[in-house]
Structures are given as structure tokens and as C-alpha cells.
Amino acid sequence: MIELVNLHKSFGPKQVLKGVSLIIPNGQTTCIIGKSGSGKSVLLKHIVGLLEPDEGKIFVDKKNVAELNRDDLFSMRQKMGYVFQGAALFDSLTVWENVIISLFEHGIKDDAILDGEARRVLSAVGLLPDISESGSASFEKEYNILRDKKPSDLSGGMRKRVGVARALVGSPEYIFYDEPTTGLDPVTSEQIDMLIKDLQQKLNVTSLVITHDMFSVFHIAHHVAFLHEGLVQFEGTAQELQETKSPVVREFIERFILKPHD
Ligand SMILES: Nc1ncnc2c1ncn2[C@@H]1O[C@H](COP(=O)(O)OP(=O)(O)O)[C@@H](O)[C@H]1O
Ligand SMILES: [Mg+2]
Predict the structure, then answer these.
(1) Count of domains in the chain?
(2) Residue 16 Cβ < 6 Å to ligand 1
(3) Is residue 84 a part of any domain in this protein?
């Protein structure tokens, strides 16, 4: 479980988070919604330790992140997979290199291990057949073609899947997705939603999805938090979100229904 307690964060005079408290329960998908610029990515960067709060606490599995030593911080990060906003692949690297880069950076050079992990995660995101077919002629053929492709050879949806595959390396307990469907067409967006849902169920990971796409929320969320003017202004199920009478939340939902891609 991840717990945020009274997080404050400013950049210069700009107060972005003004006391955010939120629980992200295990084994579920939590969506954080809010307008562009409302602080969703900033919030996520606090959870993964890329930013430190000015005030407030972050607990991961009951441990206060600010009190962890280097080794504990390292093992905490091992439990987390991060799908960055945009596809965020390295254009000059192959699919294979993009996927296993974190293992490589941790000094793992054994090709059998790297290949095994690449096959597993690329299969999990649907870019290869089921992993049980690994070793069969058709699996190997597809793997050999895919591994050497460059991001520019792939569609937007495939690039996103490679980004998700990279986050699955090392079997994290938590996966964070920052705007996973932004910039994708509606059909591809729905496929990525299905993937998020499928991975959550199959791998029983805890997923946190930052989005401003209400279609995604209704497809995937068990739990929703609405971030507005530096505070969580609503927390509940997707059903409760639809029924809420809170004017700021209603305005956000209704505006989206009228202008989905704003
Ligand atoms: N590193 C930074 N330095 C200064 N301002 C930042 C930084 N990161 C984010 N901000 C500002 O914080 C606000 C929230 O940003 P962000 O979390 O990226 O919004 P979003 O909800 O769209 O993800 C924005 O006004 C942004 O300009
Ligand atoms: Mg953002």
C-alpha cells in the first residue's frame, strides 16, 4: 500500500500540492485525474522518489520513504515500474535494448537472463505470443524480428506497449502509468486500457494511472482521486464519481464528455 500524507510542494512562488493525502490500496487500479497542469505528474514523481516534498510524508508498504537508507530506497524502487508520459523510448536503441536497459545498467550482462526477461515482458504486453510458446519456431521468428526494430518502425500503440514492457522488467509490485493513452487514437487507447486491466489482474500488481481521459477511468479504475487546485477534491469508486454532486468534479467530467480531447 502507498500512503501520501499532507504533501506540499511548491516551485518558486507556485504552490502545486497544498496538502494532498491519499491511499493507494494494493491489488487495485487507482486513477488520478485532473486538468493539465494540476500536479498529477508532480505527485507521481514524489511517489517514485524523483521529487521530495516540502512538507508531508510518503509511506510505501508502511515505511516512511524519507527515512530509508540507500539500500532500502534501492529495493523500494525495484518494486516499482514506471511508464513515462509519451512513449519515452530511446530512438537510437532497439526494442530489445529499450526493454532490458535497467538490467543492463545494474550490471546484468548474461544474455540468457536478458533474453529470458525480454521475452517474458514482450509477451506479457501482447507483442509476442504466449510465453509458454517460447522456443517454438513461430515465437522465435517473431521475437527475432521484433527485438531489432527501432521505435520509429513501430506504431504509437506498439511503442506504448514497449514502454509498458520495460516497466514490467524485474516483476514490480507497483506499476505507475503517466497519461498512458494521451495522444493515441480511441481504438488504440481502448487497447491500452485493456492491457492495463489485464496486467493488473494477471500479475496482481497495484496500478496507479495518471490520466485526464474519463473513458479510461470508467474502463479501468477501481478507485479514483480527483486532483484540483493542489488538493484531492474527490476520492471514491468510478461509480461514485459519476454520481457525485461536487460542482468542481461535475464540471471536469461534463467538460470532458463535451470535449473529450481537451
Ligand atoms: N521541475 C519543475 N520545476 C518547476 N515547475 C514545475 C516542475 N515540474 C512541474 N512544474 C509545474 O507544476 C505544475 C504541475 O505540473 P504537472 O504535475 O506536470 O501537471 P500535470 O497534472 O499536467 O501532470 C505545472 O504548473 C508545472 O509547470
Ligand atoms: Mg503530467
Answers:
(1) 2
(2) yes
(3) no
